[in-house]
Amino acid sequence: MLAAFFRRLMPFLRPSAGPLALVGLILLAEITFNAALPFSFKFIVDDAIRKNDGALLAQIVGGLAAAAVAVSLLGLLRDSIYAKVLATVVASIRQRMYSHLQYQSLGYFSRTQAGDLLSRFSGDLNVLENGLAAAVAWAVIPLLDVISHSVLLAVLDWQLALLALLVCPVIVLGPRFFAPRATQASLERRDTEGEVLSRVQESLAAQPTVKALSLQPRLIAQFARHNDTLAVRTRRGSYLGSLVERSAGSGILLMQVAVTGVGAWRVFRGDMSLGELVSFQALFVTLSYSLMYVAQYVPTLIQAAGSMARVSDIIDEAAQVTDAAGATLLPRFEREIRFDDVSFGYGEGARNLDRVSLVIRRGQNTAFVGPSGSGKSTIVNLLMRFYDPAQGTVRFDGLDIRSVTQESLRANIGIVFQENFLFNVSLRDNIRLGRPEATQAEVEAAARIAEIHDFIVSLPQGYDTPAGERGGRLSGGQRQRIGIARALLRDPPILILDEATSALDPATESAINATIARIARDRTVISVTHRLSSVTGCDRIFVMQQGRICESGTHAELVALGGLYAGLVSKQHGISISAQGHDASIAPEKLRAIRVLEDLPDALLERLASQFGVEEYAAGRVVCEEGDAGDRFYVVAHGSVEVLRADADQGTRHRVAVLQDGDYFGELALLTNSPRNASVRTLTHCLMLALPRTQFRHLLERAPELQERLLQRYEENA
């Protein structure tokens, strides 16, 4: 463990070899003085005091005083140099960790807890820094003192020195037994600290969900279990660390008594002078305490070694996606993008794409649609080379994108995500991230095209306005327009829209879509969306299902085909949303497509359609909770929700479905008084059409046999 610690540390120490050599020279001067002071007692007692030689006594004391002043001044210089070296080393490690993370593949972040990574930057680096800061005073100087003092002990009396040096194995045996256990305990504690920090970070980020679902008691109980585990591991690590120190200290005390007794006996017999005994005892006490310091430092060193191992886990993690040796620059996109028999899975044994082959030609407006989890966003991840295919190739103008640099590939692409992350810097700098060398005029031109310039200049600080954490000072639509401006600043030949408007309210979405339609001219546009109304004008639509392309063609061709795409269109058909985006209505023919209602007569469906009310929800809000009374039937007019079900064994909730435009839930609430069997939470801004059970029952009061038939039909289809 310790050998690995020094091996991992050496690359960061090597650039400071010169200053460390100077520190070493100063340490030699300090060690020389530390040895000379107790050794001088022999001459003070035997030659000065016993012979009553005042001049010699003055010379010895004066020399020691002058040496003490010089060594103190040199010590100050050594402290200054070492402090600079230490700061440089820790900063280099921190920079190496951060830089390495920036080039890690997305897969690494999906399987690694953010809190654990943060704990390595904070807790582990602090432990490592404390360990290195104490190294000179608690390890290097004491060890050098042990060497020099051992030599002088042998000079004074080699027989007694042999007895004294038995203290070394006595000190080593205890730590040798307990140190490996203490090291493992330290690693376990640091890992658990990372888990606890991840829990804290996750709960802070999810506060709207926590409050909406009343998860406080559950999260507190979960945190208490993790906190108790951390307390146990902390206690065990501290105890084992103290055993390392205690086992060494007990041996030292016993050896001091033994050396004192034997030395006194040798003086009594005339085999040693009194001055030699005094000097020997002073040297041995210093040597013993030096060993004690080392023993006390061992737990700190063990913790530092454990933290360095966790830091190295980051530095040593190989990125899954890297530039190949000799990778070339990808020229500006000219002809086509081609997927050749591409398969890919995020997890072991999973296949999110299965033998996909397709061609996207320059200038085409192409869309990928399909149910949630069908592989649409995976296409984008492979196009951007966030991941590499497990099988097959992705080619730009005939070049395998694994043979070109990632930077040149992404320079050809502008992408607008569903949630465009804004850094807490100025709006100017957020836009300029698309091309850092862009001038102010170019930034403003991109903002004008994205139709956000007028809003920015209306702000008191204009382009210098901070975006706030994660862009919190802006609305969702404003953040998207900043993201569009950022993408346009690159002047990319390819524009990717990854659910770019799905998180927005209908009115804002309509405005953003108009902007996108205008800026997409003369570019190759690739859209990933579940909102089919935005793809009707595309040159080619790829319909995905279970990782495969099951249909492709224009909107008209796919509707005429009568397959999956036509079904998706039918699902979203029959819902109208007002231009302002805050009102909606449902057509009777849409209601007939819902299995619970398919047997109702036309007149009743028309009356039923007029009874739906509109409910609007922000992202992260709860629509209904498992166990609540089933008093409403919902149709998703606009947006996306997740269906969550409680796991009684784990005390958690897991996602069982994602519902989007045209989907519905709670149909059983119309027929029975059963409680909800799942919770529903919004993933984006949502507009919902809701039908209360009381109104439905009121419509069926005159036809109880129809209600019975509807319930029977539901049970048959369930």
Tell me about this structure.
- By secondary structure, the protein is an alpha+beta fold.
- The chain has three domains: 2-13 and 77-316, ABC transporter type 1, transmembrane domain (ABC transporter transmembrane region fold); 336-566, Rossmann fold (3-Layer(aba) Sandwich), CATH 3.40.50.300; 576-717, Jelly Rolls, CATH 2.60.120.
- The protein is 57% helix and 15% strand.
- The chain contains 25 helices and 20 strands.
- Strands 6-7-8-3-9-10 form a six-stranded mixed β-sheet, with helices on both faces. A four-stranded antiparallel β-sheet has the order 2-1-4-5, with helices on one face.
- Strand 1 and strand 2 (353-361) form a beta hairpin.
- Helix 2 (17-49) packs antiparallel against helix 3 (54-102), helix 5 runs antiparallel to helix 8 (167-205) and helix 6 (135-156) runs antiparallel to helix 11.
- The radius of gyration is 37 Å and the shape is elongated.
Please tell me how large the radius of gyration is.
37 Å
Looking at the structure, the CATH topology of the largest domain is: ABC transporter transmembrane region fold
Shape: elongated
| Count of helix runs | 25
- In CATH terms, the superfamily of the largest domain is ABC transporter type 1, transmembrane domain
* N-to-C span: 60 Å
Sheet having the most strands? 6 strands, mixed
In the sheet with the most strands, the strands line up as 6-7-8-3-9-10
Looking at the overall shape, the CATH architecture of the largest domain is Up-down Bundle
Beta percentage is: 5-15%
- Secondary structure tally: strands: 20
CATH class of the largest domain: Mainly Alpha
State the helical fraction: 55-70%
Number of domains: 3
How confident overall, as mean pLDDT?
85
Low-confidence stretches: none
Going by helix content, strand content and strand pairing, the class is alpha+beta
